[in-house]
Amino acid sequence: MRPAVAVVDDAWLIRESIGLLVPGLEVVAAVGTVEELVRLAPAADLVLLDLHLAGPERRADVRQGIAAVRTLTGHGYRVCVYSQEERRFVLAACMAAGASGIVSKAVPRDRTEALFLEVAAGGTVVPQSVVGILEVLVRRDRITLLSERQRQILHGRARGLSYARIARDLFVSESTLRGYWFELTRSLADSLRGLTAGEIEHALGLAPGDLLEFWADGPAGPEDWWRIDGGAPSQGPAP
Fold first, then answer.
1. By three-state DSSP, how is residue 28 classified?
2. pTM of this prediction?
């Protein structure tokens, strides 16, 4: 019996062709957003999820990336990321968020079908390039060794904010922030050393509107873009 599969991809060609290209799967739903799939709530053994769903306009009302993985797994679905995304930190974080497999859209059709079937049957598929990065994940729902406060500092520095401005917004001293920044850069892999704050942020998939951005129930205000929780700043440094 063929496994029942739902496809979430904003490219109509992918949605319409998966069933033809991968005959070992029975496509029971093919939609453009996670929200639409949750609304339809089809019974499926596996969800094939593209990570880039918000489009070039970066729609704030569309879950993508890690937020999409969390939403689907939270509704009981088994998820296989099927994407052109190649950033290892991004893919590893999706696995940490609950995805059961990662398959590149560049993989040949026959191999793709075999990998999909393996994940649908309860297996785990992880590209070799991602395996080492998974060891950097401190625990489930954490990406690399970055604390909440380190993420806030990275967001601010990537946008050119001074330590003084960030310290004022976060109610901490500049020396404390510089200590966090030192620990942040020391924790990153050697391959990221020497990059600018913006380049590091992109490599980790942490830029506002990017794949790992937390998806809130309501958009943050214009002055709150750097806060990962979308709320008021905390009154002291994170533990």
1. strand
2. 0.65
